[in-house]
Specification:
By secondary structure, the chain is an alpha/beta fold. It is built from 11 helices and 8 strands. Helix 10 links the parallel strand 6 and strand 7.
Amino acid sequence: MNAQAAGTKALVFDVFGTVVDWHGSVAREVRGLAKARGLRVNAVKFAKAWRAGYRPAMDRVRRGEAPFEKIDVIHRVILEDVLKQFKVTTFTEEEKAHLNLVWHRLKPWPDSVRGLKRLKSKFIVATLSNGNTGLLVDMAKHGGLPWDCIFSSDTFNLFKPDPGMYLGAADRLDLKPEEVMMVAAHKADLRAAAQQGLRTAFVKRPHEHGRNNNPDLASEAEFTVNAGSFLDLADQLGC
């Protein structure tokens, strides 16, 4: 086992991009719906535009400029803007509501379920996501993700990288921050966790933004572990 990771008792996971393929899943559903309605929509650009609205919306909440809302609500507001941007005016309310729930149906990366099951044999495995609880539960059922526990933004009414998310997860598990390892494909998330005393595991997801379209895959000495997949992480943690 990685010596720096000794004493770790729980792994908490970023979900969008780290555990599941948001880009491919959303683009596929948009492409299918557009085809069924006889519309020409660039599904890849649509998926990226929808995702691009996510961080600014959360930042407004974190600055106190907007009230806390579940990600489902935020996603729907962004969706309305993206539909206007792509000049899509013919979707029914039912179609828009169903499309908004695509985030509940995101497909896990090929190594995610096997890797999580191996990691779960030795550690508590939990989400620590800006998604809401209902979304994360649906996603787990849909993709067979074997979480022990789900921590979401509405667990704490906060969004990462608020310190209360990282410290809150440790507190709920009755663990010290240094007994918890944040697992993410996003370096900013890991650095925010490390500032609160958590250990960190960087998992490389080269296809997060589309095929081989992730520019920042370099290992970093500051992270406790750098891994190429959840299976590699399980190997390094002795699972």
